[in-house]
Amino acid sequence: MHLLSREAFEVYFRHLRTDGVLALHVSNTALALAPIAERLAASLQRDSRHIHASDDRRTARSESDWVLVSSGAPFPATLSGQKRGEASQRASLWTDDYSNLFQALK
């Protein structure tokens, strides 16, 4: 949980270039982590996109979910992926002092 806190995001962005992208692998069978990551991005006025990759047996790729967070400028309109949705607006902001795993249960 401490890796998805506001304080952790602040540390990540101190180390990223201004044109960098934070890529978070948020696949989880029990927890909906994408709204938490998107809420954190919004709290820092960062643009985010939720990317879902379907499984593909031909290439042996497993299904996965990612949240990309821009460290500077907004993502170009050509980047496919879902913008921050209603679920992330309802998600609580996780900090070093507060997190709620029950709220993230699927």
Describe the structure.
- Helix content is 27%, strand content 19%.
- It is of the alpha+beta class.
- A four-stranded antiparallel β-sheet has the order 1-3-2-4, with helices on one face.
- It contains four helices and four strands; from the N terminus they run αβαβββαα.
Helix-strand blueprint:
Elements: H1 6-15, E1 21-25, H2 34-43, E2 48-53, E3 64-70, E4 82-83, H3 86-90, H4 101-104
Antiparallel strand pairs: 1-3, 2-3, 2-4
Summarize the model shown.
With about 110 residues, the chain is α+β, with helices and mostly antiparallel strands. The chain has four helices and four strands; from the N terminus they run H-E-H-E-E-E-H-H.
Which short descriptors sum up this protein?
106 residues; single chain; four-stranded antiparallel sheet; alpha+beta; 4 strands; 4 helices
Number of strands: 4
Largest sheet: 4 strands, antiparallel
Arrangement of strands in the largest sheet: 1-3-2-4
Query: Could you state the order of secondary-structure elements as H and E?
Result: HEHEEEHH
Given helix and strand content, the structural type is alpha+beta
Tell me the β content: 15-25%
How many individual helices? 4
The span between the termini is: 16 Å
Helical content class: 25-40%
Radius of gyration: 14 Å
Instruction: Give the low-pLDDT segments.
Output: none
